[in-house]
Amino acid sequence: MKNNIDIKKVAVNTFELEAKNILALSERIDDDFVKVVESILSLNGRVIITGIGKSAIIAQKIVATLNSTGTPSIFMHAADAIHGDLGIIQQEDLIIAISKSGNTPEIKVLVPFLKQTNNKLVAIVGNRNSFLAEQADYILDTTITREACPNNLAPTTSTTVQLAMGDAIAVALQTERQFSDRDFAKYHPGGALGKQLYLRVGDLSDNNGLPIVEPTMDIRNVIISITKFRLGATVVLEDDKILGIITDGDIRRMLEKHEDISRLSAKDIMSLNPKTIDRNELAVNALHTMRQFSISQLVVTDEGKYAGIIHIQDILKEGII
């Protein structure tokens, strides 16, 4: 059993070796990489990605990344392809085959059938002299110095480098398409990530009602307004103009400062210049503002007019954090 220092050293050595091999890819980004990206950009069909073993797993991840960033893609297992899955390929598709050696039996059987389809074939391959590389229209070289595996056998460095090459393709496509966060949201409507990208302030505040008091309203009615809407605050409004906000905290501070509150009105205890946010802003931006100023509510506006209140609990309930 190795001691703690030795175990940590193994981990560090793994990171260093894999990082070194990823960086080495920079020297191999040639015209073929540019042509692959340009071919995908002009593609009327889909990107079909195939592989065997661990390369098949990497292929599935690259497919997922491309689909989520606006490039329709399909995974085709190399072993299943020759047993009927070749029917996935359509006339205007582009095929990417991933293999470390480029000489596995499955690849040697599959590639001639892929060539018969007359689709462009891209090889993400770790051996430029391999059967796959010789048959491919474009080569993306993912050669490595060695696997991180101590026996230089288990796919470790090689799969990491393949994955990095796939990411480079996806990011280049995003950049060329000017793929925005709103575009990204279209493909990620579920979960916290999706809500961060599409949920608007108005989607939440519209359900809260409009707590309002006039500047001359007595404290009893101020408290009733705060309590009724359960937002911890009410807005002081006069002639549709926002004068201020009264929160639970303002009520507590009033009680600390005044023994007799019978003559006080809303304008006497309100906080001026409340923080506001437009109803069309992303809800996640409202959360950032609340955190920045250590507050629990924001006054919501619509073209400068009072439109409601959004509370931090509204955002928490949506699981955006």
What is the strand and helix layout of this fold?
Blueprint (H helix, E strand, L loop, with lengths): L3 H21 L6 H11 L5 E5 L2 H15 L4 E5 H4 L12 E6 L5 H12 L4 E5 L5 H5 L2 E4 L15 H21 L3 H6 L4 H8 L2 H5 L6 E2 L5 H11 L3 E6 L2 E7 H10 L8 H4 L1 E2 L3 E3 L4 H11 L3 E6 L2 E7 H6 L4
Parallel strand pairs: 1-2, 1-3, 3-4, 4-5, 6-7, 10-11
Antiparallel strand pairs: 7-8, 8-9, 11-12
Helix pairs in contact: 1-7, 2-7, 3-7
Describe this structure in words.
The protein is an alpha/beta fold. The protein has helices at residues 4-24, 31-41, 54-68, 78-81, 105-116, 131-135, 157-177, 181-186, 191-198, 201-205, 219-229, 248-257, 266-269, 283-293, 312-317; strands at 47-51, 73-77, 94-99, 121-125, 138-141, 212-213, 233-238, 241-247, 271-272, 276-278, 297-302, 305-311. The strands form three sheets. The chain has a five-stranded parallel sheet with strand order 2-1-3-4-5, sandwiched between helices. It has a four-stranded mixed sheet with strand order 6-7-8-9. α14 links the parallel β10 and β11.
